[in-house]
Write a structure and sequence with these properties.
By secondary structure, the protein is mostly helical. The chain has 4 helices and no strands. The mean pLDDT is 92.
């Protein structure tokens, strides 16, 4: 997400939301490709509908995350707080629960996405790395 971490949190909300939406749409396309390959829809139209639905869902989750994270940073006046990312992840999880028509899915996704997003923020602030040689 080049560009997402560049500016201060709570500013440039439209740009951050657009970046998160694009990442979500790309993840949706990748997930849809795997789903189509593994589950083999009956027709090309069904495959197209699956790809569109999955991509739009993931793009929506990205947009909700970007917007709620940025707005919570502005409203709370705590731009560097990982709680903003938890709020954004939780809001995305709630939207996923609404999409699935399931309270359990929404609650689980809220906690999972929120904790993951907060850990990403903490890791970014503290310089954690997922790949590469260890720092000695």
């Amino acid at each position: 997400m080049a560009g997402y971490w560049d500016g201060p949190e709570g500013e440039q909300c439209p740009q951050r939301t657009w970046l998160a939406t694009r990442v979500g749409a790309a993840a949706g396309l990748v997930g849809a490709a795997y789903r189509i390959i593994l589950l083999r829809p009956g027709s090309a139209l069904a495959a197209l509908q699956t790809a569109a639905a999955d991509s739009v869902t993931m793009a929506t989750l990205g947009a909700v995350f970007g917007l709620s994270t940025c707005l919570s940073a502005q409203v709370r006046e705590a731009p560097e707080d990982p709680l903003n990312y938890f709020i954004g992840g939780c809001a995305s999880g709630a939207v996923l629960g609404v999409r699935a028509h399931s309270y359990l899915t929404g609650t689980t996704a809220c906690l999972g996405f929120g904790i993951t997003a907060a850990l990403m923020k903490i890791g970014n602030k503290e310089g954690w790395r997922l790949t590469g040689p260890p720092k000695l």
